[in-house]
Amino acid sequence: MEPAVTADPEHLKALSHPLRRRILRHLRGHGTATSTTIAEALGENTGTTSYHLRQLEKYGFIEEIPERSAGRERWWRPTRGPRDVRMPAPEALAPEDRPALAEVLRLGHAEDMALFSRLPEAYERDPDWARLSRGFTHMTREGLAEFFEGYIRLLREHGLAPEEAPPDARPVYIRLFTLTADED
């Protein structure tokens, strides 16, 4: 499966809204929901969540579940499809669209730092679910690209869609980032 690169400026703008990101996380972690159940879970009002759900649908991040929806009650789930969504290189965007990418990256970094701050307590509580590894090595640019693609293959191989997950499966945050160490 080829990775999906989110290079459309409108898609980036849709992802640069904090509440939309919270809604996506909620749907990925808790499964299907309505604007009402999401509003209750996130402490928002239904009108606000309904608007942002429609925006997420417009840009293909979520979809309505027609067989569960009835009348004004619409059920939503994350869009099925490629799970390997990547950000574009800044130079691939027009200069006026780069602030949206910067905001998506800033929000993602803030979310990752919040997750990272939970790690020591989560590891203490249940090290079978809070795994961690720190690595250091030397790689070529090509070797790093191959390593990254291997990591993505492992995620696809071991990851389950919510509807395929057995009862003992749990939603798990997984992060990988690489930085060169020659700037230290």
UniProtKB/TrEMBL annotation:
Gene3D superfamilies: Winged helix-like DNA-binding domain superfamily/Winged helix DNA-binding domain (1.10.10.10). The keyword Transcription regulation applies. Pfam families: HTH_20 (PF12840). PANTHER family: REGULATORY PROTEIN ARSR, TRANSCRIPTIONAL REGULATOR, ARSR FAMILY. The keyword Transcription applies. InterPro entries: ArsR-like_HTH, HTH_ArsR_DNA-bd_dom, HTH_MetalResp_TranReg, WH-like_DNA-bd_sf, WH_DNA-bd_sf. Residues 10-91 form the HTH arsR-type domain. Keywords: DNA-binding, Transcription, Transcription regulation. This is Helix-turn-helix domain-containing protein. It comes from Actinomadura vinacea.
